[in-house]
Amino acid sequence: MTNFNITPNRRNNIHGYKWTFVPKDVLPMWVADMDFPAPKPILNALHKVVDHGVLGYEIPGKVLQETVAARMDLLYKWKVQPEAVLTVTGIVSGFSVAARAFCSQKKGVAIQTPVYNEFHEVKNNIGIPQVDIPLVKSVKGNIISYKIDWDVFEKQVKKARIFLLCNPHNPLGIIFSRKELTRMAEICIKNNVIIVSDEIHSEILLNGNKFTPMAKISREIEKHVITLVAPSKTFNVPGLFCGFAIIPNEELRKPFEAELHHLHLYVGSMGLHAANAAFSGQCDGWLKELNTYLTGNRDFLVDYVTKYMPNVRTTVPDATYLGWLDFTQTGIEGSPFDFFLKNAKVFLSDGKVFGKEGEGHVRINFGTSRKLLKEGLDKMRKALDSK
Ligand SMILES: Cc1ncc(COP(=O)(O)O)c(C=O)c1O
User: Fold this and answer.
1) Could you give the count of Cα atoms lying within 13 Å of 262 in the half-sphere of its Cβ?
2) Could you report the per-residue pLDDT of 349-369, keeping only the tens digit for each?
3) Cβ neighbours of residue 125 under 8 Å, at least 6 residues apart?
């Protein structure tokens, strides 16, 4: 059994981001990585490479493509040919590559807001238009949830060339249903829009929830989808920058692959070895325990907010280790991000980086020990109580 209650000190890492970016007296609960060591089979694979000693050029071979294809079959009974699997230097690189391959200054990218900040950067990075499709918030007691407005979806998505779908959704934690995915896909296909489905969080499933990849819905839909997956969130190896674009349709795959080569976006050898070990199935026992622990953290967070933070609203995420808290009813002046940094010494993700609908909200990363989660929430509660 893995003891997720114990987390190593991350403040002394010279290249560290989450813990090193913030002052020593501030608790980081922001960028989306977890405070847990990666599972042993991945660490063993990396040790083996280091022990060999020669760190020459390495390329992702057939073995890795087969490993990724086998994982899709194992998880979803989604049969993909190994050659449909391309390696990318992270999922965000995949957004840019897809946008460069398919968008123009007239037709750009559609995104469902509020959404992961890097979705908003594609327009700037590539110089293309962005179309927003706001999700519609509803409130029940102190629980918030978000739905698609289908009229808005159709009206907006048809202005774009690619629809960048975030499923499971960061920061809202939604797993879109088969029905919703089918309807989104039908609208995209009717309007000649390619779906780029970011499924990076697809294996962080809380409470035993199930996930269906967009491209698995039907062979017809699959032809219009670029699926982006990675071991990075699931097995906590994002620093190795290794992801995959699964593109069964050659008409989409060839232009995507050409852009990858133009840009020389090749993954480092450590990323390749780690990904192979991660997707080989050897880490799945660890993953099961992780998802149980994270479900406990999610429930702890929702209960805590409900009991001790009056007027604060929260999502109940189906997936991811990201909570979304709404402070719009609390009378905090200015942004809750600034408020908690100043008064609680907790560094969260400012809701407004996810789109204007995120103002008055923060994203909280609960991919940590229960002890640190409680410590952060206690500090936030105290700051709210003494406001
Ligand atoms: C939805 C989503 N996509 C992509 C990424 C980052 O992917 P990468 O580091 O592989 O570029 C994140 C990280 O938080 C994310 O939440």
Assistant:
1) 12
2) 999 999 999 999 999 999 999
3) 96, 99
pTM: 0.98
Radius of gyration for the alpha carbons in the chain, expressed in angstroms and rounded: 21
Residue ranges per structural domain of the chain: 27-40+284-385, 54-278
Binding-site residues, ligand 1, Cβ < 6 A: 32, 90-92, 116, 166, 170, 198, 200, 230, 232, 238, 243
Q: What is the CATH number of domain 54-278?
A: 3.40.640.10
Rounded Cα distance between 101 and 89, Å, is: 16
Cα of 193 to ligand 1 centre, how many Å? Answer: 22
Phi, psi angles (nearest 5°) of residue 96: -65, -40
Evaluate whether the domain defined by 27-40+284-385 bears CATH number 3.30.420.40: no
pLDDT digits (tens, 9 = 90+) for 152-174: 999 999 999 999 999 999 999 99
Give the contacts of 209 (CB within 8 A, at least 6 positions apart): 175, 318, 319
Of 17, 31, 86, 116, the one to substitute when testing ligand 1's pocket (max ligand atoms within 8 A of C-beta) is: 116
